[in-house]
Amino acid sequence: MARHAAGLVNAAAVAQPDLVLGLPTGRTAIPFYDDLARRHCAGELDLADAWAINVDELVLPEDHPSSFRTFMERHGWRRIGLDRSRCEIPRAHCETTAQLQAECRRYDAVVEKAGGLDLVVLGVGTDGHVAYNLPGIQQLETHPVELPDALAEQLDVPPLWRPPRAITLGFGALRGARQVLLMASGVAKATAVRALVEGPVDPQWPCTLLRTHPHFTVLVDRDAATQLAQ
Length: 230
Fold this sequence. Notes:
Blueprint: H1 2-15, E1 20-23, H2 29-41, E2 51-54, E3 56-58, H3 68-75, E4 87-88, H4 97-113, E5 119-122, E6 143-146, H5 150-155, E7 165-168, H6 171-176, E8 179-184, H7 190-198, E9 216-220
């Protein structure tokens, strides 16, 4: 799955060297970045002229070990051949609601200035969330969100920063991308994959809101596909 996803990014970069990538974090993304790094080291992938816009970030100090910025410094960005000056992620270390809202508006302007996303790569949560658009939320613009307490342990958010919060791109940017690639791995994602592939379009399963996108690719491993009828 990761190799196939990396291959699609590689093909997109060959066709459009200055493409604008929307990038994810999370466990599913690690082997994806590993394969991109392998291709870059082998001279098979050139992202030097590409732009990268991460789809979300936790409200934490930028250098915190659990921040998505730290994740991208470790697994993505320079490692896959991107120019760090052409990589954007929300500046989410905000202390007030007003600061969070101002950063959301700034980030919307970043996406608009880039001309939108050419290819956005997404994971999916066990509850069907994409980026951090949670069940029942259909906001178009970038917005702050308070995450469920259950995610605090999963994300290793320290008690000082709980309940965990995040800034996320909304469905305007995600559905406005020219191509959408969604990856799901592991049996824990099987219910969300079934909802995405076989269920109705339902805001309670946010991933289903992408189904009508004209260029939507879903890649799953065998475990994530266990609940599918076919």
